[in-house]
Known about the structure:
Blueprint: E1 3-6, E2 9-20, H1 25-28, H2 34-44, E3 49-50, E4 55-67, E5 70-74, H3 97-103, E6 113-115, E7 128-131, E8 134-137, E9 143-147, H4 148-154, H5 171-181, E10 185-188, E11 191-193, E12 198-202, E13 211-217, E14 220-226, H6 233-236, H7 248-264, E15 268-271, E16 280-285, E17 288-294
Bound molecules: zinc ion (ZN).
Amino acid sequence: MDQLDLGNVSVTRVWEYFGSVEMTPDTFFPESPQATWDDGAEWLAPHFLNSETNIVNSALQTWVLRSEGKTILVDTGVGNHKERPYAPVWSRLETDFLANLARAGVEPEDVDIVVNTHLHIDHVGWNTYLDGRNWVPTFPNATYLMPKADFDYWNPANNHKTLLGRGNQNVFEDSVAPVHEAGRTLLWEGTHHIDANLRLDLAPGHTPGSSVLTLESGSDRAVFVGDLLHNPVQILEPDTNSCFCEDPAGARATRHKILGWAADHNALLVPAHLGGHGAAEVSREGSRFAIKGWAPFTPYQQG
Length: 303
Ligand SMILES: [Zn+2]
C-alpha cells in the first residue's frame, strides 16, 4: 500500500527515486563504525544498504497529506533538469515524479501547501520546473512554507560559510528564489499551525532552519522529520550524524529530543529518505532507541 489514514488525515507516499547515493557508510555517517553496518547487513539490505557494494541506499520521496480538504506536499525531492555540478548523482535528472504524483490523484494545480522541511538540494527540487529558459513554480496555487532561518542561511546574498558549501550550488537560485519572487512563499519562524491536525516546529541542527511536521488527529500521531535521520542505523545510534549536518552537536540533541517524543507518544516516525517501509514506530532503549515496528507502506518496486 502507498496510503495510510491517521485520524482524519491521509498520508500517501510518492516516489521520485530509490537507490544508491554513491556513498559508503563511513563517508555518509563518519561517526558510525563499519562493524555496525557489517553486523546489520542482514536487516539493512537491500532497502538501506547494498551489502555487496557497501553503498548506502536512499529514497527520494514526497509525503502527500490530505487534511481538512487541503492537499499538502512534504518535501519536493531533487527535481528534473537541475544543474548540480557538485552533486552529479542528482544532476539533470529526468524522473517520472509528476506522473507518480498524478497516479496518487494529485495534479500540480491541486496542491494547496508545499512544506520544505529545510532548504537542501534534495528537499526543494520540485518546487520549480523548467519552462523554456525559466524556473517557475510547479504548484501554481500553492503556498510554499519555508523556515525563515533556512531561507536566510542558504540565500547566497548573505554569504554564509556553510558545511555543504557547493553541494547546494544553484539550489536557492533555481528552486527557492523563483517561488519567492512569484509571491508564493510564507517564511515562518518558531511554530506554524497549518490546520487543526498539522503543525510545523523548528528542529535545528541538520540545518539552522530544519523543521518537523507533527500530525495529531484523534488518537493517531506522526512526525515528519525530514533529515533528522537518513538511515535506521541512526535510530539505534542516535548520536550518529550524517556528514551533512551543519551543527553536529545541535543535530544530535535534536535527534534525541524528537525520537524521544515519538517513542513517548506512539508517533509514527517519518523521515524523508527511508526506503523499505519508509517509516517506523520507535521505543526507548536506555539512551538509545529501537524499531518497534515498520509502517505498512510497500517498499519500492522497480518499474
Ligand atoms: Zn535530504
